[in-house]
Amino acid sequence: MIQLKYVKQKTEVAMSNYDYEIGLDLHKEFSMLALLNRQGECLRFDKLENNPILLNKYFSQLSGSVRVTFESTRNWYWLADYLHDRNIDCILSNPFLNRAIAHVHAKNDKYDARTLAQLAQCELIATCYVPSKPIRHLRELISHRSKLVNMRTKLKNRIHLMVDKYNFKAPYDYIFGPHGIKWLDGCDFPEPIKQIVKDLLKTIEILNPQIEEYYYRIKDRVEKHQYYKLLTTVHGIGVLHAASIIARVADIKRFPTVEGFIRYSGLSVNTRASADRLTYGHLNRQADTHLRTTFVEASYLIIKHDPGLRAFYDYLRAQKGHGCAICGVARKLARSVYFMLRNSTPYRVRKVQPQYIQQHTTTLKVKRLHRQHKPEAGSFRAVTDPTSI
Question: With contact defined as beta carbons under 8 Å apart, do 184 and 204 qualify?
Fold first, then answer.
């Protein structure tokens, strides 16, 4: 008889080289701090208001090296700047991946702060990238301009709704130009509706110069960036798309592999594997949606100038439809952008792959035959194989 012998193996956990580890549970008005020494013992808990003066007093009492760990909440900017200005090392934690805090039956601020410090001390914490101030400012400019554009679109849709409600037929495709606005003024709306349309047009006139101003602000910030000239060699990537990629990528060297960059871009497909079974799902949602939107929008334009990607798009659209095809083009574009920025080379147009042309043509022929031999509604199809009944 074979006897199994279980051997307990000692596992060594890497410990940090800091004299003090501080876990900081950040809130809007206050923060809970847990102080751990080099041996991992929790010395004390402190509840402080989010005031730099109180934090100065707290850190002045500590003699030795200190590292602070806090989560990426909605208000982490000021704390990261505060610690950076005072040369205090910090870790920005990913709350989604650090599930040791979320999966507990008794959760409170002290437990959260202590767990952050313990995970950081054992080097087991999932971290987030902390962009520099210029990159954060660029992100805010792009986000604010996008909000203004969305606001303007909602106002225009509101005017279109009023036109449709009262059955006015516009003689122009675009009714917000000089001739379209003159036509709107001449429409015989009821009195309250006419005033609403005028107010909506006035608000749009206020938003237009603001949107244009932020466009030039963004352009002035990214024109001198080292990635800008490389990105604009791609047909379909202009000033705003290049600025969005620069703001979200920041430094391409933080992505060791192209697969990691595609996952970060939200263009990778979720897979589930068990034994010999492999299942493909939807696109990865735990990603940067702004970067994914940028690549998808640029894909609509690049397929008009790149014959290789156009052939790939036609082939994939015949197989799986337009949505999967445009995401596939965006994934290939993301790969190209990664190597462009990594190797500092401009974009090169792809060659047409023969298999895409051949398979695409075969698929179209099969679909055409199915349409020609499709039985009419209400008719019966003859069954030639009796075993299939």
Answer: no
Domain boundaries, position 165: 134-222
Structural domain count of the chain: 3
Tell me the CATH number at 89. 3.30.420.40
Residue 242 and residue 213 share a domain: no
Dihedral of alpha carbons 61, 64, 65, 67, sign: negative
Question: From residue 207, how far is each of 142, 145, 156, 160, 196 by CA, in Å?
Answer: 15, 10, 12, 18, 17
Residue 382 pLDDT greater than 70, yes or no: no
Would you state the pLDDT for residue 365?
Answer: 54
Taking only the tens place, the pLDDT of each residue in 163-197 is 999 999 988 889 999 999 999 999 999 989 999 99
Angle at 270 between CA 262 and CA 268, to 5 degrees: 15
Q: Domain for residue 4, yes or no?
A: no
Cβ-Cβ contacts under 8 Å for 101 (sequence gap 6 or more):
95, 107, 111, 112, 115, 116
Residue 379 dihedral angles phi and psi, to the nearest 5° = -95, 160
Check whether residue 200 and residue 161 sit in a common domain. yes
In this structure, are 247 and 360 located in the same domain? yes
Cα–Cα nearest to 336, from 257, 258, 251: 258
- Residue 131: is it exposed, middle or buried by C-beta count within 10 angstroms (0-12/13-18/19+)? middle
Residue 146 has pLDDT above 70, yes or no: yes
pTM above 0.90, yes or no: no
Asked, for residue 15, whether it belongs to a domain, the answer is no
Asked whether residue 150 falls in the same domain as residue 213, the answer is yes
> What's residue 2's pLDDT?
43
C-alpha distances in Å from residue 4, one per residue of 1, 7, 66: 10, 10, 47
